[in-house]
Amino acid sequence: MSRLHDKDVTVGMPDGLMSFEHRRVWEKFFAALGVKTVSSGKTTNDIIRYGVSLCSNETCLPVKVLAGHAASLCGKADCIFVPRCMSVCKGEKSCPKLCGLPDVIRLSLKNKVPVTGVTVDLDTSVKESGKSLSALSETIGREKRSVESAFLRIVVPGLAAENSPNAFIPELNVEKEKPVIAVLGHPYMIFDELLSMELIKKLISAGYRVLTPYDIKRSVRRANARPFAGRSFYETGLDILGAFNVFRKMDIVAGMVYLTPFACGVDSIAAEFVERGIREEPRKPFLKLTVDEHSGESGFDTRLEAFLDMLPAGSLNEKRQSV
Q1: Is residue 322 assigned to a domain?
Q2: Distances (CA, A) of 215 to 22, 163, 240, 248, 295
Q3: Which of 128, 141, 189, 311 has the most CB within a 10 Å radius?
């Protein structure tokens, strides 16, 4: 793709899917190159509705939402940045929909705005990204050597970092006498307040502390990702399975909630092993919540309240606030 303008371009960054884990890495990458970026912001009902209208019915909810985020950037950015994330570590794969994501977004937007990106395949070789980095350098008007250097210096180590780049829940380290609920799921589900129907906020306001897979170091998640530890599997699936096997042995964890989008291929495998494991000792109360664009918050809250009734009271008072 050739450079769009004689002036510097503004790169649009849709705030969905893996942006919850990778956004800051890519923002640092573009900042190091002196390129202006603009985010689509938090998910709204309008973004969901628009994304649903742009995608086929078989598309999973998170991809529909990303399409809506990308569409909301039309007129605000010269191009939309959507990485083709094949893998971020050796022996790991990304969901097939992430592998084809730039093509999905390009088709959804019907060429209203150019879609650019970088191929990330760290399982095979960093060199595989070379062609896409060359195209990106032309689009943003930067020297290829500078773009490649920033990718190797910032993106490669950033995507495989031990600790999550985002401090999602500041409340984690306070009031340690409170019981803990572990929330399992993909980052773009559990940290998107609209898609998750503010699940984490509701648990905190009900008097619980919350832990997620991203509060555990990557190497610990991988070492505990049974039955796929040391084997090739999907990145987010390894995150969920590894965290589950850590949480189930923690005395402070009073229960676990698994939030999943309807028809998720990765979760169809990971959730099966979680549900098998939850039946083993030590047992913990468990709730699986499946949502799509048609899910209602009233039914969601009713199930959550019923689950919380099985747990120790989250607050120091005998009565717990309704979620």
Answers
A1: no
A2: 15, 8, 12, 15, 28
A3: 189
